[in-house]
Amino acid sequence: PALLEAAEVRTCQDFVFKASSSSSIWREQLRIDSCRMRFFALLWTLGFLLKEARAWSYKNGIFHNSIWLEQAAGVYHRESRKGRYQLTYKEAKAVCKYEGGKLATYEQLEAARQIGFHVCAAGWFDNGHVGYPIVKAGANCGFGKVGIVDYGRRLNKSERWDVYCYNPNSKECGGVLTDQQKIIQSPGFPEEYQDEQICYWHIRVRLGQRIRLRFLEFDVEDDTACLADYLEVYDSYDDVAGFAGRFCGDYLPDDIISTGNVMTLKFLSDASVTAGGFQLQYHAFNASFFSQNHTDYFH
């Protein structure tokens, strides 16, 4: 049923009160019953919407339903620098250990999921299990279910997946940013960044806003086609869609303006040469104020 406008609800309530306090004929009683049914349908619909909103954690005009939510409850997702699904069980444990952590347990993964950790990518976790956390059910991820999608304990430890690590004291490398403006820096900036880094920053501002990303300082190992160290920008909430560009070298890229209220940055460094790093700034602005004279460009 359609939601009733506030005025219509008040009218309905007034009608029920007046009609029920008089000796109305049976047709009026039918109208009363119909009005009551619409009113209770409204309450049921509002209850359903509130339940859904809690699953997505709506706060300050922002939905905190982040994919790739780094460092939630000490749990974070990692993939091989070669790409998704490239780590054996032994390699997965080594990745977590290298960062001072260990494989996340099922309980740690579930605790992180309950505060919004949602990743549509299967990875190793403790005791040789493979799975991933789902906060919001979807047709394309999690088989329409909510919870930990657990593929079970894998007998073949040479299978290749991503990994879920646990380290409550891990260094800051990425995260979910919901401020109206903020400075983003490479790990260790202004010192040189370290080898073998993979960091994700997921920017989410209020619905109806857009994001301007400005490069303040930039020095990332130069390489043909940026195949060694690089910073990638995505005009979306993950690194799957909305590719905006890959950057390396020491020139300052132009500003980038999002088409919506989300943007993702991915920084990756290989095992050899490093450089000075980068410092960026983003700020949110209302899309209605955006002049048509500006150009949305993604390099």
UniProtKB/TrEMBL annotation:
GO terms in the biological process aspect are:
cell adhesion; negative regulation of inflammatory response
- Swiss-Prot/TrEMBL keywords: Cell adhesion, Disulfide bond, Hydrolase
Link domain: from which residue to which, for each copy?
74-167
GO CC terms for this protein? extracellular space
User: Per its UniProt entry, which superkingdom is the organism in?
Assistant: Eukaryota
| Cystine pairs | 96-165, 120-141
Q: Please state every residue range assigned to the domain named CUB.
A: 173-285
Is the keyword Ligase in the record? no
Q: Transmembrane helix as a keyword? A: no
> According to its UniProt record, what is one Pfam family this protein matches?
CUB
One annotated GO molecular function is: hyaluronic acid binding
Where is the chain membrane-spanning?
none
Quaternary structure, from the entry: Interacts (via Link domain) with inter-alpha-inhibitor (I-alpha-I) component bikunin. Interacts with ITIH2/HC2; this interaction is required for transesterification of the HC to hyaluronan. Interacts (via Link and CUB domains) with ITIH1. Chondroitin sulfate may be required for the stability of the complex. Interacts (via Link domain) with various C-X-C and C-C chemokines including PF4, CXCL8, CXCL11, CXCL12, CCL2, CCL7, CCL19, CCL21, and CCL27; this interaction interferes with chemokine binding to glycosaminoglycans.
Protein name (database record): Tumor necrosis factor-inducible gene 6 protein
